[in-house]
UniProtKB/TrEMBL annotation:
<dbReference type="Pfam" id="PF08984">
    <property type="entry name" value="DUF1858"/>
</dbReference>
<dbReference type="InterPro" id="IPR038062">
    <property type="entry name" value="ScdA-like_N_sf"/>
</dbReference>
<protein>
    <submittedName>
        <fullName>Hybrid cluster protein-associated redox disulfide domain-containing protein</fullName>
    </submittedName>
</protein>
<dbReference type="InterPro" id="IPR015077">
    <property type="entry name" value="DUF1858"/>
</dbReference>
<dbReference type="InterPro" id="IPR023883">
    <property type="entry name" value="CHP03980_redox-disulphide"/>
</dbReference>
<feature type="domain" description="DUF1858">
    <location>
        <begin position="3"/>
        <end position="55"/>
    </location>
</feature>
Amino acid sequence: MTIEFTQSVDDVMRHWPATIRVFLNHGMRCVGCPIACFHTVDEACHEHRVDHETFLADLRAAAFEGSQDLG
């Protein structure tokens, strides 16, 4: 499964915990936010004025690296 713009922020962080650092590194304080289960990745990027393509690439890289750590 690949991370997409249409997924909720909460789903991304739950399925790929390594992505939490990406949110924080981009200045997005989505961890623990009550809106995270309603906002998509796309909406969060728009809200926080983060470049969509760069952010998605960073999320995918973190998810891939995190899955490699699991063996």
